[in-house]
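Handover notes (outgoing to incoming on-call)

Open items:
1. IS3 family transposase: sequence verified, structure written out, both below. Nothing else pending on this one.
2. Nothing else urgent.
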Amino acid sequence: MTFVGEHSDLGVEPVLRELSIPSSTYYRWRQAETEPCERRRRDAELTSRIRQVHDESGGIYGSPRVHAVLKREGVSIGRKRVERLMRQAGLAWISPRKGKSFTRRDPDADLAPDLVRRDFTADRPNRLWVTDLTMVTTLEGPLWLSAIRDAFSRRVVAWETSARADADLVLTSLAYALASREPAPGELVHHADHGCQYTSVKLTTRLVRAGIQASMGSVGDSYDNALAENLWMVIKTECIRGRVFATRAGANLALFEYIDGFYNPHRIQKRLGYLSPIEFEEKHYADQTATEQVNLKPRRPALTS
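IS3 family transposase structure tokens:
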């Protein structure tokens, strides 16, 4: 059609005859260009919304999560169409990288048994917490991050940072978790690795006082604390990679914006039915309340003859 337009001074019909193109076909092509078909218009609208969802996620969502967000919004679109439109728009998810372990073991410490045995599931909140330490590099020096994650909802229930990777850091994050969640004594398992911070007298004493069962996987084995290791992979992929932090305060702010501003309230996960951790917990409590109300509803006595 471009060739015909370039030689329109010769007349459209003569050029079409030379090219053996029916005039009806040519004018249909022209109309399609000037008046895009409904599917093309719809693709353009969907691409605009897909790009917005992708941008709102910080560029981390792939087609499954983008499709889930659109579905939640009531947009009727197939998974394959989302994949195609994202590919055409050059939108892709960020692939994770394997992290580095920073576990340092105290050979003289008393170790807790492994109560989890790689089964990182729970039937309700505050039954299993996993925890670990990792390091964030800044130009000012290392910033150590301690976080506690609930196995039920994968929510980060508490986190804290420090320039020192010591027992006080993990104790502070535990204190924040206990204050915000108030788990029932005797029902919660606290799972960590054999790092010296987690075998310290300070931490083990605090766990005993709170009625929390201590559990430990083996040192240097990411599978024994896989749920905590997975959190580091997610944070470093989606929040830290490609960024240079001049100060520890700058890195701490970035972690706050990601964990409290995005991960907990908004980052949907396939294992949670494409809900965010907070949404998943809210749904659990709402379902629990509805079940209790049904059970408390008085029943009519059976009619007797």
